[in-house]
């Protein structure tokens, strides 16, 4: 068992739970290598800040074998299955880079889009959020409204005139009206997720969340593996596969060394030179 009973109870109550330092320093080092390589990737999966720096890279587990291994990490898969009680597939993955001065992420629920746009029937899924850096009150932590896993979809859809890609999937914005946000925070409070690098947040995909601008030079990268139970598949295929899964096969966990073997392979190659 990866999560204690107390952690599972916390998830049931608040809709999320943080597992401190679930990944080791050696595993984070391997992921740093993947991060640096994916930072050079140029394609439709990359959304950029105004200055051109990458803000989000979608489909990380399809672009790099180390991120693919992360999506099959035994601790992550076991913890997700402990919380959801079923096998899972990756609906969407992404790297979110909170650059100094980069974009604000407005209040939203990931499930709102997954349901309306991708046709995922129910919020039977998690955002598995891997903190690549120490997150403190200073470097724009993720802020969550507890207990909103039970709130239903509180986002309202409106046509987004500013959308560059005005196809069926991109032409709406999904915003939470301020009165709704006030009510939810009044009823449930608000929590900033802080913790050391390697910590992993398991959060129901209906939980309302957002983050402010990072005005510090302290990097804040979070890797997201957004998984659903295998019976809860997207049914519209309105978006490309790097945004919404086509592969619904249950994730088969790898061995404990699934990340560190990349470092061992590099060390072996170095020794042979
Ligand atoms: O990492 C963050 O600040 C929030 C990311 C997020 O919620 C999103 O991209 O949907």
Describe the structure.
The protein has one domain (5-263): q2cbj1_9rhob like domain (Jelly Rolls, Sandwich). A hairpin with a 5-residue loop joins strand 2 and strand 3. It is of the alpha+beta class and 273 residues long. It has helices at 5-14, 25-38, 60-63, 65-71, 74-84, 110-116, 178-188, 260-272, and strands at residues 16-19, 46-48, 54-58, 88-98, 105-108, 125-131, 142-144, 156-159, 172-175, 191-193, 200-204, 209-211, 220-229. The mean pLDDT is 93. It has eight helices and 13 strands. The relative contact order is 0.25. The chain has a seven-stranded antiparallel β-sheet. The site of 2-oxoglutaric acid has 9 residues, from strand 4 and strand 12.
Helix-strand pattern, N to C?
HEHEEHHHEEHEEEEHEEEEH
Q: In CATH, what is the class?
A: Mainly Beta
Main sheet strand line-up: 1-11-6-13-4-3-2
pLDDT average, as an integer?
Answer: 93
Bulk shape: globular
Sheet with the most strands? 7 strands, antiparallel
**End-to-end distance:** 41 Å
Give the CATH H-level superfamily.
Answer: q2cbj1_9rhob like domain
Please count the helical segments: 8
- Report the structural category: alpha+beta
Quick overview of this protein structure:
By secondary structure, the protein is of the alpha+beta class. The chain contains 8 helices and 13 strands. The termini are far apart.
């Amino acid at each position: 068992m990866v999560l204690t009973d107390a952690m599972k109870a916390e998830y049931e109550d608040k809709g999320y739970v943080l597992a401190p330092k679930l990944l080791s320093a050696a595993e984070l080092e391997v992921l740093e290598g993947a991060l640096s390589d994916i930072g050079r990737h140029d394609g439709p999966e990359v959304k950029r800040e105004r200055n051109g720096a990458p803000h989000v890279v979608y489909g990380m587990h399809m672009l790099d074998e180390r991120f693919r291994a992360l999506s099959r990490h035994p601790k992550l898969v076991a913890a997700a299955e402990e919380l959801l009680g079923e096998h899972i597939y990756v609906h969407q993955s992404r790297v979110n880079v909170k650059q100094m001065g980069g974009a604000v992420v407005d209040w939203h629920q990931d499930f709102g889009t997954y349901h309306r746009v991708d046709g995922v029937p129910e919020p039977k899924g998690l955002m598995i959020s891997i903190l690549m850096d120490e997150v403190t009150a200073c470097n724009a932590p993720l802020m969550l409204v507890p207990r909103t896993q039970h709130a239903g979809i509180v986002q309202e859809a409106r046509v987004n005139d500013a959308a560059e890609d005005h196809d069926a999937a991109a032409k709406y914005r999904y915003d939470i009206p301020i009165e709704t946000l006030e009510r939810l925070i009044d009823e449930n409070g608000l929590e900033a997720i802080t913790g050391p690098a390697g910590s992993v947040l398991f959060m129901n995909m209906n939980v309302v969340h957002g983050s402010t601008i990072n005005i510090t030079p302290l990097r804040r990268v979070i890797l997201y593996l957004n998984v659903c139970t295998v019976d809860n598949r997207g049914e519209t295929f309105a978006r490309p596969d790097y945004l919404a899964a086509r592969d619904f096969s249950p994730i088969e966990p790898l061995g404990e060394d699934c990340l560190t073997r990349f470092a061992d392979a590099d060390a072996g190659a170095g020794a042979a030179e």
